[in-house]
Known about the structure:
It is a single chain. The chain has helices at residues 11-34, 42-65, 73-105, 116-123, 145-164, 169-176, 181-185, 197-215, 221-238, 250-264, 272-283, 285-302, 308-328, 333-343, 349-353, 355-365. By secondary structure, it is mainly alpha-helical. The chain starts with 10 loop residues before the first helix and ends with a helix.
Amino acid sequence: MFTLDPAKNDTSVTLNLLRAAAAQVVCIGHAWNFGGMGSTSAPTDGVLLFFVLSGFLIAYTLDTKSKSPSYGIVDFGIERFARIYTAYLPAILAIGLVALAIQWYGLDIKADRVDLKTFIGSLLMQQNVPCCLSVSTFGTAGQLTSVAVEFHIYFFVGALYFLLRGKNVLLCCLIAAPFSFMPLAYFSNIPGTDRALFVLWLLAFASYYIAKTVVEYRVNVAFWCLAFVVTLTTWLIELTPGDDATLRQYPMLVMAFFSLVLVTQRVRIIPKRLAALINVAADYSFSLFLIHLTILRLIFALWPDATIWRMLFAIVVANALAFVFALVFERHYHRVSDWIKSALGRPSRQWRSGPAAKAYAGGQQS
């Protein structure tokens, strides 16, 4: 069976490694670009990897948790909301405060619109949504459109998933409709843009179900190692400078990821200490993605000399502050989720794991 149990294989820690690497690629790429060192498309590649991981893991979450009769769109929605907003809300508030400070002190930082409407739009994940508030990104938070895209995808796909399973049909329809605008706007292939990200997400989503089926048979590790090398090399060769998000490059990226997952399902070779370090880096990766650009641009404004030391200093500071930010906010998303579920009378995470959970499940089945 397909499993993410770290005691049985290296898949879980490998996914965490990819998550941590994606955040660092975005951070370092932005430091390079905004630090006056040149131009790179690395941040786009990091975002692509985030979307691959997201699609795959949401499929895993829906498939495993929906086996419980009590689990539906409400529980899924609460968990996704808590996972994102526990860090996103304080991050956007902090970015807003920095934007006000920048205006107050007259610092020379090129940023997006800074006004109340744009702030509220970003707070509600409406930046660049092709309807409703029609707002752009806020201040130094230009990278957060991708978070909004994922947020809308979660609810759109989640609602469709439970709709097809016949759970809360009316509620699923009411949720899917308003959350469809953003994903469908990213279901095209406009050259020079990232408007095919939903296609990439869906490819990764589907890859989970294929991997789950393949793992039921004996996986040939040598074959999938070769497949990983070939598909990854093909993707790197196909990369178009300045147009990394083009649709034609997605299949090889997803195939490389898929092959790596199958390899790690059959091996367990990563040392425990290294795995622990990887998990620590992954635990603050979302926080790093949220706040790194504001930190980088603020440091570059205060330290105008474009040197490699300035860039390295900014990267280290961004990582350090993101680590602290994650400790204060992001790491508590499970508690936030449990609190919301308890307030709505839903079984919480801890409640599900105890004897009461079995009684609840049995009562639902009957």
